[in-house]
Design brief:
Elements (H helix, E strand, L loop, with lengths): L1 E4 L5 H13 L3 E6 L4 E6 L6 H6 L4 E5 L19 E3 L2 E3 L5 E5 L6 H13 L4 E3 L17 H14 L3 E4 L6 H7 L2 E4 L7 H8 L5 E4 L6 H12 L6 E5 L17 H8 L4 E3 L1 H5 L2 H14 L3 E5 L17 H18 L18
The structure holds phosphoenolpyruvate (PEP) and manganese (II) ion (MN).
Length: about 350
Amino acid sequence: MIVVMKTNATENQVVGVQKAIRELGFKDHRIHGEERNVVAVLGHVYPELVDELGVLEGVDTVVRISKPFKLASREVNPYDTIVRVGPVKIGGGSIVVMGGPCSVDTEENVLEAARAVKAAGGHILRGGAFKPRTSPYAFRGHGEKGLHILAAARAETGLPVVTEVMDARDVQLVAKHADILQIGARNSQNYTLLDEVGRSGKPVLLKRGMSSTIEEWLLAAEYILSHGNRDVILCERGIRTFETATRFTFDVNAIPLVKKLSHLPLIGDPSHATGKWDLVEPVALAAIAAGADGLEVEVHPNPDHALSDGAQSLTPKNFAKLMDRARTLGDAIGRPVAPAYNEPVAARKAS
Ligand code: PEP
Ligand code: MN
């Protein structure tokens, strides 16, 4: 349920509505609109609440939200959310690109990948220190040491860092080093973990589960948002279908649909969707053309020697080519690739 305030409602009246919502035992969530304020009411709402809140001073209308996800919904917040990470803005009309190795291996490789991502105009460095692997015998990441390697690459290049957190017990540790916490496809319905990243105060990149419906994915986002964390970035990374010729099936339909249903920024991951480096560029461009706000792409200086996902990783040269094509496409459709990251090279703490 949302309480839509009158355009001329005073600050005191908005605060009064928020207080009344809390006194009735619900959670409130304020949205500062361009024209008017809206206050979302969270919890098990009942029909009579429409009248109880409707009589409060400054209230224009009280509207029940039809979708099961509320804070993630455009019904509650029609304005595009822009997630700010240092100088990078994700969402709101331009294209942001995150690139880097699947898993953090050596400091040299991660630095080389980070330099390549930056040189090509990429905005954020990706890399996994905690790796969810199908087999327990595969390389599962360097853990905390990997976080330090990512932090060193950020210190040199200035690129903010996105990295996966797999366990609720590690959220504080990963949040200390990362600029964006990634929730992987396999953990996208791990509700304890979603609660914890919701409380972390850090932006969260939420992958779609490989078997999640769009509604389940947006409800996963709702977990994070319900803790007051407004900085959620969605990522379509392919779903499981009958097709086995590619690793997953990139659900291009989901992009325009989710952009309609939700105000949250949405990026595409063509690397995990296809599993094949030579399909990454066309699927990346399809994601942008369909309305994605950016990309997450695997880049490795020497894909043949990557400790995970080498077959889907771009070389620096192919990443630069993808960036060129993305710029051409972005300009053609009026959603340009965001300017290259130009912060002077200097050591910088996680924001
Ligand atoms: C990743 O981006 O490192 C990853 C493991 O992707 P996903 O969770 O989408 O499989
Ligand atoms: Mn990977």
